[in-house]
């Protein structure tokens, strides 16, 4: 089973992005998704910068996939998408049906924001060219069992295993709104929140995370306890979503569990020690996504 | 200008609501079956086969069409429930299937090529390339566009798409891109995509603490109200939460979408249909909204340059709207 690093969901300064991926290049992660998936206004890293970074990471032995925007509305966004789709070096991850349309006929990844909930849709995606799909985050292990049983030949399965869950998108920029700014004059306020901006209930419980036009969970999804189940189910790739701190430790802990050097519950304990927020894994267990079930070996 | 060149599409969660919509001038009525195959899967709501048959007959006699919403995402174990619903809809003589899932769209296309197919708002098509995908694969005739586009983006989608475009005109406002929101399942286990439910009633708890009223969704505090405040149903994107140490409606206030102000432009740019949200609403509500929108559309079609009376209808609509207020939503840039 391989490990991937999902696309960076936050706005970080360019130098920090480069430095981060330089460190990631030295980890045992197999696949790296690069590119802006949230907001087309974020241009600290331009498409050409992402492609240059992709070449460097590819040269260091990583498989690189270029990720694309999840919500496409403006013509300018479609033209950026076309530019990425027509790169002749790297596989592309589609996060909107516009990308599926433009990628038809080439080998691509159907990302987590493509609604693939059943085998008929999976076959259709496969016929258009998808050779890998990322399960929508709200689906459970039980659904995965059925989807795996009729998976088309040559279709790899990737699961969102670690990180704040991507839960929704809007036309509205919630980070701008929370900071009394208009989206059209946002001054890149989301750059002030390198892990998003936590919202709390009126009982002070961390609830959700604002990340521009995206809502994420405040808790961190962690499926390290399910690594062996994923292996048994024929999952090909576990996706870890970038966070600014301790990413290398997270990657290597997952790697050790995959290699049977740690048991899943040992891995879970290691990660629990430095997580600053509560974990969640409810979706996997067919429960509300915010729930957590501890792994007991 | 042809008087009927923009269709008024109204909701019905019951036979009386369907009759109310037909009687008050709806061109088309959309309905769902009594199960998870549609995105208003509420207890006691929607149509069994007998009621659907009666409703279709009633509408057809009055020259109105009936659309069947099958706009949730079927999972493997229950796939056959969705295909059976398609078969039943065809048998009943439904005019249109409203579908979100690509796999199900394929089934409908192969089995019933002669029945019109509309891509549901739950299909999340916000641009013409996504629409091209569904058009090329399934020959869809119309797309209901998500409530995230600005007016100029709606215009662009209409100009560049090979299919008809339906826009939401009035009703509850989804703040998130439809078909891509898992907030409800994160908290309750049920979402629009998986179960046809958002913030389902079975997960709601109302509490009185002193003179304060609190609303919870599966235990999560969505809002609390002082005695002088009106409390709202705890839809989780319309609760008050704390961010940067301020308590506010972080995502959206309880408010209704009302696009009457932009109706002349929507007609001028060639929108094919205006959709009213609210299959969960009463027949009386459906009657009122249908009547007001019918008058507004007819007036606007007759005198597009003098459509200055939107305010009159807006006042009437505000009285029955969620939170008694309205917004143009994403059509207006500043909302975003």
TL;DR?
The complex is a heterodimer of chains A (297) and B (336). By secondary structure, chain A is of the alpha/beta class.
Q: Which structural class fits the helix and strand makeup of chain A? A: alpha/beta
How much helicity do the residues of chain B have?
A: 25-40%
What is the CA-atom radius of gyration of chain A, in angstroms? Answer: 18 Å
Report the mean per-residue pLDDT of chain B as an integer.
92
Helix content of chain A: 25-40%
Provide mean pLDDT of chain A, rounded: 96
First-residue to last-residue Cα separation of chain B: 33 Å
* Rg of Cα set of chain B: 20 Å
Estimate the strand proportion of chain A: 15-25%
Shape of chain A: globular
- The first-level CATH class name of the largest domain in chain B: Alpha Beta
Overall domain count of chain A: 1
Would you identify the CATH architecture of chain A?
A: Alpha-Beta Barrel
CATH-assigned homologous superfamily of chain A: Aldolase class I
Let me know the number of strands of chain B: 15
Largest sheet of chain B: 8 strands, parallel, barrel
The first-level CATH class of chain A is given as Alpha Beta
